[in-house]
Amino acid sequence: MAKLNPLDLFNVRSLLSEEEQMVQDSVAHWVDERAMPLIAECFNESRFPTELIAEIADLGLLGSSLEGYGCAGLNAVSYGLICQELERCDSGLRSFVSVQSSLCMYPIYSFGTDEQKQRWLPEMAAGRVIGCFGLTEPQGGSDPANMNTHAKKDGDDWLLNGAKMWITNGSVADIAIVWAKTSDGIQGFLVEKDMPGFVTQDIHGKMSLRASTTSELYFDNVRLPDSSRLPGVKGLKGPLSCLTQARFGISWGPIGCAQDCLDTVIKYTEERMLFGRPLAANQAIQLRLADMARRITTAQLLALQLGRLKDAGKMEHTQVNLAKWNNVRMALDIARDARDILGGFGITTEYSPIRHMLNLESVITYEGTETIHQLAVGRELTGISAF
Asked: How far is CA 377 from CA 80, 103, 312, 320, 386, in A?
């Protein structure tokens, strides 16, 4: 009898198109050859592997779902598979691509002028310009409307003041997409790194997403021409639509974490001998491995259907909430259990589960906490907002 793929028990891959399979295979091969050998060291050293940016761009992974401007124009499922393979390596790697693509290139593409698109998108797709997304503030968290950063008209210009926190790519970014209150509602601005009054400061002491740059942004009377404003949207709809794009990718990414954890512990338990037999021969271990496979399979099918809905233009916000909630929780639980199965070996970065586990503590919090996603689903079911 043919042996099933332990990381894809329901042969979800057979539901992918030939192009989607090619995208997954090319990214998976690059991850295995180039990213995996570096990532534990990067995590230990608390640095993002900037030396890989050009290669990521050459693969067409930056702004991969956008049409034109040097972007690959792939469908949503392909973008999801990209996120899955990148996060199989590390959440920091997927976060970099997610921020660049969904949170920075997407708003320029959707809300920017033709001049802004022509100036920024080709350079961002090529990895020559890196972006960051400035929405979260220290006092804001899950309530983005509680925003202190503001921009006021000063003649034909704007003066930007305020601060943003927990910003991926902040200090390495050439351009920041900053959302600020104005007299005409919340609006987005393109802030270049060398503008007077704009400074960044990295956040240190992180135990999660260590292979990722996380920063604070400060704006002290940063003078912006009106040409730096994204004119195509006003209000929270702008940043929230970006988050929907990013959350879609996050719904796929943790599947890769979970698959890597399961693969690691299958191999470990087959080789680890206890009481005269392999650890994998114990019923308790097999039950835990089987439960991991069950959860991964459920998440794979959920993500694939979400991608098909998105490609058909039928995806709803609540569906993204449900997928992000379910799939990140799935991966975090599996990473924790995999770490436990590894015993003492599990607390070192020689094995990946503890790194995935620590990273997922951030992923389950950012771009909507688990509670926020639960309440969003509850609001859909009852018609009553509890937040």
From this structure: 22, 23, 22, 10, 11
